[in-house]
């Protein structure tokens, strides 16, 4: 785990008097528990990143759908309305530009949401494991001296 709790002084004396077999058994139990907890942390972190990725991809899909529907449903109406003030080809060109701008903004928002979920690796769990390994190494060095 990321934080090492200090055992009471009585527990330290108990450890110095424990046999190698007992210490090995405790190490095995604690290592198994630590590995299980780290796996649970990684699982929770990946679930959160997956949720964020799903939201981002949903927004990208919405941008595509909005672009498609807007081109079909509103194009004729807007072109006809603008054609009252300018030539028909210019009215069609203006409407197309507006639709592309809206779709582009939505795509950028969705992409930024998807990038927040990347990389899909459990960064916090990896850092916690590195801290645990460093603490174990430090404890082993102290035990040798």
End-to-end CA span: 24 Å
Number of strands: 0
Return residue spans where pLDDT drops below 50 for at least 5 consecutive residues.
none
The geometry reads as rod-shaped
The major pleated sheet works out as:
none
- How much is the average pLDDT? 83
Q: Helix-strand pattern, N to C?
A: HHHHH
Q: Any idea what the radius of gyration is?
A: 30 Å
Helix content: over 70%
Integer tally of domains: 1
Strand content: under 5%
Number of helices, counting only DSSP H or I runs of 4 residues or more: 5
Oligomeric nature of the chains: single chain
Q: Assign the structural class, choosing from mainly alpha, mainly beta, alpha/beta, alpha+beta, or little secondary structure.
A: mainly alpha
Summarize the structure.
The longest helix has 54 residues, at 20-73. It is built from 5 helices and no strands.
Structure characterization notes:
With 145 residues, the protein is mostly helical. The protein has one domain (9-144). 84% of the residues lie in helices and 0% in strands. The protein contains five helices and no strands. The chain has helices at 9-17, 20-73, 75-82, 88-116, 123-144. The chain starts with 8 loop residues before the first helix and ends with a helix.
SSE layout:
Layout (H helix, E strand, L loop, with lengths): L8 H9 L2 H54 L1 H8 L5 H29 L6 H22 L1
Features:
145 residues; mainly alpha; 5 helices
């Amino acid at each position: 785990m990321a934080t090492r709790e200090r055992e009471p002084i009585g527990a330290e004396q108990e450890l110095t008097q424990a046999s190698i077999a007992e210490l090995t058994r405790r190490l095995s139990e604690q290592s198994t528990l630590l590995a299980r907890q780290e796996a649970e942390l990684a699982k929770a972190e990946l679930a959160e990143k997956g949720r964020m990725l799903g939201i981002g991809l949903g927004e990208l899909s919405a941008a595509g759908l909005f672009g498609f529907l807007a081109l079909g449903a509103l194009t004729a109406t807007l072109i006809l309305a603008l054609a009252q003030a300018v030539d028909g080809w210019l009215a069609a060109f203006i409407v197309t530009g507006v639709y592309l701008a809206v779709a582009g903004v939505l795509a950028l928002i969705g992409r930024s949401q998807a990038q927040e979920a990347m990389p899909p690796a459990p960064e916090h769990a990896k850092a916690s494991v590195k801290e645990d390994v460093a603490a174990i190494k430090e404890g082993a060095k102290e035990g040798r001296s």
